[in-house]
Write a sequence for this structure.
């Protein structure tokens, strides 16, 4: 296991190093993206394929470090933040999550003929909180590394576009900053991308954008509980269908316990007044753990698997991006009534 963990740590440090370079830092892309790319590149080199004794460490990183990161991510959120904007924000975010995941899954599987895992991972990343949602959903449904890597790539691409498009749109919309911040928070993919887009508009926009976004992050928990049960039942049904052919299914009910851990940490963070340094330290540990998981997933992904998916996941992500951009502009003022 040690060799695999060292490999993930090396890729993670390299990813953080690349992200810290001044020209790269200005793009707003985080270390998670570069760690994924480094893992993908190294894992597909002949030298990477010949590495021995790394499988256990890669498995530990992609499974347990991922879950640990998701749980500790709860230190970035408090119940008080959720209550500050009221029930209307929860309604807005719930509508976004439900619409995007449902529409994305239908478009992906019915129209684009994607496999179920790729469709739901791409939809979850667009609907909830980008790469973190993709990784958490992967933990609940246990998808293939290729599907996870592709889904992360799509949300990074369109989330990055959003950081530039939303500030450009702001003067054209004629909205006040608070409302536009809520629009950003309810429709932009990643937390970091929300901060970048909201900050480019103004302080009032940034404040609302972050809180609305964190409400979306909170909705990851019920989403994981529902999607875990749906996938478990489908696998069980497929197993029963194959029993007549001598194949049995051993899949057990999938309960994403780390989702409850995330909720517990949010509650703890709400009740305790932790020093800012301690709280930020936990958030950094969460980010490093998720980045190491991304290194493992990238290393385990083979280019041939990505090629088999083609451009269809990007087409799906583009459709969802346009839906968020236009649909969010319509429903945000209707639900919040802030104008």
């Amino acid at each position: 296991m040690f060799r695999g963990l060292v490999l993930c740590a090396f890729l993670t440090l390299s990813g953080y190093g690349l992200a810290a370079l001044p020209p790269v830092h200005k793009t707003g892309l985080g270390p998670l993206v570069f760690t994924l790319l480094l893992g993908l590149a190294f894992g597909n080199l002949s030298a990477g394929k010949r590495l021995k004794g790394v499988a256990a460490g890669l498995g530990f990183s992609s499974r347990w470090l991922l879950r640990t990161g998701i749980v500790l991510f709860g230190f970035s959120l408090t119940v008080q933040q959720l209550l500050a904007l009221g029930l209307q924000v929860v309604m807005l975010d719930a509508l976004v999550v439900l619409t995007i995941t449902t529409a994305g899954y239908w478009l992906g599987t019915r129209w684009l003929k994607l496999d179920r895992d790729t469709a739901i991972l791409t939809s979850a990343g667009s609907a909830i909180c980008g790469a973190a949602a993709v990784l958490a959903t992967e933990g609940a449904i246990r998808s293939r590394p290729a599907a996870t890597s592709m889904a992360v790539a799509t949300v990074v691409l369109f989330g990055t576009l959003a950081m530039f498009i939303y500030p450009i749109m702001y003067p054209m919309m004629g909205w006040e900053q608070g409302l536009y911040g809520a629009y950003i928070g309810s429709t932009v993919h990643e937390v970091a991308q929300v901060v970048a887009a909201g900050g480019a508009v103004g302080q009032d926009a940034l404040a609302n954008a972050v809180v609305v976004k964190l409400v979306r992050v909170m909705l990851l928990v019920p989403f994981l509980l529902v999607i875990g049960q749906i996938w478990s039942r489908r696998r069980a049904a497929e197993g029963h269908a194959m029993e007549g052919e001598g194949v049995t299914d051993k899949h057990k009910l999938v309960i994403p316990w780390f989702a409850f851990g995330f909720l517990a940490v949010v509650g703890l963070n709400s009740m305790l007044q932790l020093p800012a340094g301690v709280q930020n330290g936990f958030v950094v540990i969460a980010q490093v753990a998720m980045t190491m998981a991304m290194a493992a997933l990238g290393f385990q992904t083979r280019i041939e698997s990505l090629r088999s998916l083609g451009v269809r996941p990007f087409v799906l992500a583009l459709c969802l991006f346009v839906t968020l951009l236009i649909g969010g502009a319509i429903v945000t003022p209707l639900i919040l009534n802030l104008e």
Summary: Residues 242-254 have pLDDT under 50 and may be disordered. Residues 2-241+253-336 form one domain.
